[in-house]
């Protein structure tokens, strides 16, 4: 195969050097006859167009046994690499996890029912008990409960059960006199954790309805004392104890009234006088002797008695009228019992004979006045009508007795009284009974 034109004379030697004789060929007639061929016109000036030099297209042969050269189509899909093989399932897993998490959250919020309707507001994070605010009701209960106990006393009439609260680290407990009265001087105390410990009666004051017992146990947590004189009507309170043998019971209410005077007592027993804190916290049998605490967890009263609508001899229950001995009075009596074995009784040095309504007004009439007593020293006489004691109106004889018992001996109180048609005022220094 040649590139160009290979013209030879018939019989000539193809390998002979030099140009062929006769000159360049001419085109045949009929195709521009007689003219010089264009293939020859520039042959002498073109070193690559030697008509006598053989030219050939050489195609190299493949080695023996070798296959054809591989051919790749750039538009054809390539074979997946290892990175691609790992990336695809990873992306798939992430997408599936995200979708599952979204669906799970949606079902958790909606509750999985209701046709996509969300019932209620989205709840806030609920704090655990350890996260309760100290001044919340739960925080106050958590603080006070370890100091509250159940008191059981065996007597001739069976087992008497009430409540109490620890007031010293060495085991002194305040309770009511009517919880331990009639017993043998021995008691059993059930602590907040359910454990029991023996106890002995240290002393009692029947008229104030306060008793002190001593628990034979160490590591006790005393309760914190508050100030009952600083209370106001409407202050929130908690009553804690074992009503109806239900230990560690907490009920809530408010201070309904202050200095609610009353007398109570069983037939043949001592007459008890209360100038009490009235509360609407639920108090039942078994709460007696337990603490009434304020919103800071400080004891401000000793739950002692309730009012009820039941008939005589029937079991009374809570109707929202409960009464507690003010803690300032209970603390003073407790200290005297621990120190001396008995409590002093505060007196005004006069006996009341009835109301003053017969003379045309309210108040409490003095029947007799002891010559050397506090009332006589303040200028009071028999027949005088006490109208107010420290600003508290007097309407019944019980009012004067209960309010006087509330104060410590040596306290000075103001007395407004009427003598005839004249109103007067005086100050009386109360004293302790000589008994």
From TrEMBL:
Positions of transmembrane segments: 85-108
Compositionally biased spans, kind Low complexity: 10-19
UniProt keyword terms in alphabetical order: Hydrolase, Membrane, Protease, Transmembrane, Transmembrane helix
Positions of the UniProt region annotated as Disordered: 1-45
Single Gene Ontology BP annotation: proteolysis
Alphabetical list of InterPro entries matching this protein: PDZ, PDZ_sf, Peptidase_S1_PA, Peptidase_S1C
Source taxon at top rank: Bacteria
Occurrences of domain PDZ (ranges): 337-419
Single annotated GO MF: serine-type endopeptidase activity
Parts forming coiled coils: none
Family the UniProt entry places it in: Belongs to the peptidase S1C family.
Protein name: Putative serine protease PepD
Lineage summary: Bacteria, Bacillati, Actinomycetota, Actinomycetes, Micromonosporales
């Amino acid at each position: 195969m040649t590139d160009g034109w290979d013209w030879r004379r018939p019989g000539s030697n193809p390998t002979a050097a030099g140009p062929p004789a006769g000159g360049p060929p001419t085109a045949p007639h009929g195709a521009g006859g007689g003219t010089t061929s264009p293939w020859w016109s520039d042959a002498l000036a073109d070193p690559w167009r030697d008509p006598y030099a053989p030219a050939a297209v050489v195609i190299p042969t493949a080695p023996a046994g070798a296959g054809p050269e591989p051919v790749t189509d750039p538009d054809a899909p390539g074979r997946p690499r290892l990175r691609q093989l790992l990336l695809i399932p990873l992306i798939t897993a992430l997408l599936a996890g995200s979708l599952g998490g979204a669906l799970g959250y949606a079902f958790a919020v909606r509750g999985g029912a209701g046709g996509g309707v969300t019932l209620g507001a989205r709840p806030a994070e609920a704090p655990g008990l350890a996260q309760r605010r100290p001044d919340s009701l739960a925080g106050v209960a958590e603080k006070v409960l370890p100091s509250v106990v159940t008191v059981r006393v065996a007597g001739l009439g069976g087992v008497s059960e009430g409540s109490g609260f620890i007031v010293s680290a060495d085991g002194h407990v305040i309770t009511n006199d009517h919880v331990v009265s009639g017993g043998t001087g021995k008691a059993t105390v059930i602590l907040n954790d359910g454990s029991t410990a023996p106890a002995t009666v240290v002393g009692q004051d029947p008229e104030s309805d306060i008793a002190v017992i001593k628990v034979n146990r160490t590591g006790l947590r005393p309760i914190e004392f508050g100030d009952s004189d600083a209370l106001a009507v409407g202050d929130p309170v908690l009553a804690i104890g074992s009503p109806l043998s239900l230990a560690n019971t907490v009920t809530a209410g408010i201070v309904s009234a202050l200095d609610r005077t009353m007398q109570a007592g069983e037939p043949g027993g001592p007459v008890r006088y209360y100038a009490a804190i009235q509360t609407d916290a639920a108090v039942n049998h078994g709460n007696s002797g337990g603490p009434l605490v304020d919103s800071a967890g400080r004891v401000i009263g000793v739950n002692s008695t309730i009012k009820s609508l039941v008939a005589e001899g029937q079991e009374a229950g809570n109707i929202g009228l409960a009464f507690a001995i003010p803690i300032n009075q209970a603390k003073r009596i407790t200290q005297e019992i621990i120190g001396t074995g008995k409590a002093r009784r505060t007196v005004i040095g006069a006996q009341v004979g009835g109301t003053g309504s017969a003379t045309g007004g309210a108040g409490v009439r003095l029947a007799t006045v002891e010559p050397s007593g506090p009332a006589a020293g303040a200028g009071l006489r028999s027949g005088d009508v006490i109208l107010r004691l420290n600003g508290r109106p007097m309407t019944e004889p019980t009012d004067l007795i209960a309010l006087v018992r509330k104060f410590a001996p040596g306290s000075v109180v103001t007395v407004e009284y009427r003598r005839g048609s004249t109103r007067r005022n005086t100050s009386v220094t109360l004293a302790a009974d000589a008994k």
